[in-house]
Write a structure and sequence with these properties.
The complex is a heterodimer of chains A (about 280) and B (about 210). With about 280 residues, chain A is of the alpha/beta class. Chain A contains 11 helices and 10 strands. Chain A starts with 8 loop residues before the first helix and ends in a 6-residue tail after the last strand. Chain B is mostly helical and about 210 residues long. The longest helix of chain B has 14 residues. Chain B starts with a strand and ends in a 6-residue tail after the last helix. Classes of the chains: A alpha/beta (about 280), B mainly alpha (about 210). Chains A and B meet through helix 6, strand 2, strand 6, helix 10 and helix 11 of A and strand 1, helix 1, helix 3, helix 5 and helix 7 of B.
């Protein structure tokens, strides 16, 4: 009978530092069980036998495939449609009004959802724009969605959801935008699926994020809570460069850009607090 | 449908990342956005910290300075941490604050440099260095604070040290606290905070 590979405290610390350098995600000691469980799974799946062999392969593998598999295993992807809906309301009632006031007709509005997880957030934005924003008749909108987890991106593109994922949707929208499957799941219609461009992005990689520019709105909700202070500052710098002057970023309800960076202005709208790149920023 | 799927970004992403030399050059680009991008990209470049420090000495745009400081904190070598400590002398409050935040993470890589900052000739630097200690998680922090109480000539430095000892000290700091009161006998505020600290360290107060 094969033995379960043991992860020592030293292994855990070594792995934690490596994973942090690669992704910006920091696991404190309270996450030990979560990390160990997934490490053991990967050690067994790769037949590495023990942590040492696995870690050597992880660090020196040229393709980076195992690192990506590990990232997929270590990231949390819990979300649902219309989560923190007050920000979506804010988007269509106030934020887009400001954005369109500054734009010329020829420029599309560009929105980035990061991390997209299994697609609930970017698809919610698409539905919200179509249902509740009058400006959609006049303006073109480009929706981009990114995540570090390649498996979850494939799920997002498929657009197949459990009843739990859609529980917060009004019935009329559920019927309009989804087809109920025999097993009780819901398939998102192609028009919405095809309106979002998904891509794999590691926010900590300068080369990954280099092309992400010219955004008017960024949704980055409940990601920075997994980062340490330094990674949060690096992420803030990345978002600053990704936004147009006057562009805005929505964070999760427990997150605050003011505690991370002084680059953004706080904007208090009736529905939500968002963070704005100053109009005069260069 | 006016929702447009654009793959433009993907094609842009296929571009090769800029080489390090291009990034070193871009540190002096007239466009702030290009300098920020260079600052972020040089984290992994050999000799990156020296170039970032040199740029920081000249840079006036706050967003670029923040990117430079964040990258120096990420590199956290001796050159970077020394430069961050030098920022504590700046007249610019925003720069000082950014440097403090950066040193809270980067300082743990070089505790000896932070310890040196506690002996700096400038009392303001010593005060700011005390503020960094809380995040340093170094086993000797209490000893360094005790040393300040015993030897530092500036009242405000000692008061900051007392405040922090109140948070993370143990009973072994009590003699130094008492000595500090003797060194500054007529300072009511110091007496108040020292009394509070001693009570707390002896477990006599739940405050």
């Amino acid at each position: 009978m094969s033995q379960t590979p043991a992860i020592t405290q030293e292994d855990f610390v070594k792995f934690r530092e490596f994973f942090y350098r690669k992704t910006g995600i920091h696991f404190d000691d309270s996450k030990r069980y979560f990390v160990d469980k997934r490490l053991v799974e990967r050690i067994e799946m790769t037949a590495a036998g023990n942590f040492r062999n696995y870690f050597v392969n992880l660090r020196f593998q040229t393709s980076g495939d195992e690192l990506q598999s590990l990232v997929n295993a270590m990231t949390v992807n819990e979300t649902y449609f219309f989560r923190e809906e007050y920000q979506l309301k804010c988007l269509v009632t106030h934020m887009l009004e400001e954005v369109t006031r500054r734009k010329t007709d020829s420029e599309p509005i560009r929105i980035w959802s990061m991390p997209s997880s299994s697609g609930e957030e970017p698809y919610s934005i698409a539905m919200y724009l179509l249902e509740y924003w009058k400006g959609i008749e006049e303006w073109d909108v480009e929706l981009f969605a990114s995540d570090i987890d390649t498996n979850i991106l494939e799920r997002a593109k498929r657009g197949l959801y459990s009843p739990r994922s859609v529980h917060n949707l009004p019935l009329a929208l559920l019927e309009k935008y989804f087809t109920r499957q025999k097993n009780g799941d819901y398939q998102l219609i192609d028009d919405i699926r095809q309106s979002v461009e998904f891509s794999r992005v590691n926010l900590m990689s300068a080369s990954d994020v280099k092309a992400y520019k010219g955004f008017d709105i960024i949704f980055c909700r409940n990601l920075l809570i997994y980062f340490d202070d330094l990674s949060r500052r690096q992420a803030a710098d990345t978002f600053f460069d990704a936004l147009n002057p006057g562009g805005m970023i929505c964070l999760g309800h427990s997150e605050s850009m003011s505690r991370i960076s002084s680059l953004f202005n706080v904007r208090k709208f009736p529905e939500a607090i968002v963070y704005q790149k100053p109009l005069e920023a260069r | 449908m006016p929702l447009i799927r654009n793959t433009l970004l993907e094609h842009q992403g296929d571009d090769q990342p800029a080489g390090f030399q291009a990034l070193f050059d871009a540190l002096h680009n007239p466009e702030a956005a290009a300098r920020r991008l260079a600052a972020r990209g040089l984290v992994d470049a050999p000799g990156g910290s020296t170039a970032l420090v040199e740029r920081l000495e000249e840079e006036s745009e706050s967003s670029v300075r923040e990117a430079l400081i964040t990258s120096l904190a990420a590199i956290a070598d001796v050159t970077a941490v020394t430069a961050l400590i030098d920022c504590l002398r700046s007249e610019d409050a925003a720069l000082r604050n950014d440097a403090i935040e950066a040193l809270k993470t980067a300082g743990s890589q070089h505790p000896a440099l932070i310890q040196d900052a506690l002996q700096d000739y400038d009392a303001d630097v010593r005060i700011l260095a005390v503020g960094i200690l809380e995040s340093l998680k170094h086993p000797d922090v209490e000893l360094w604070l005790i040393d300040l109480l015993e030897h530092d000539s500036h009242l405000n430095v000692c008061a900051c040290a007392v405040d922090l000892l109140c948070e993370l000290g143990t009973e072994r700091a009590v003699p130094a606290l008492e000595l500090c009161l003797e060194r500054f006998p007529n300072e009511d505020y110091l007496r108040f905070v020292v009394d509070l600290a001693i009570k707390r360290l002896r477990g006599e107060s739940s405050l």
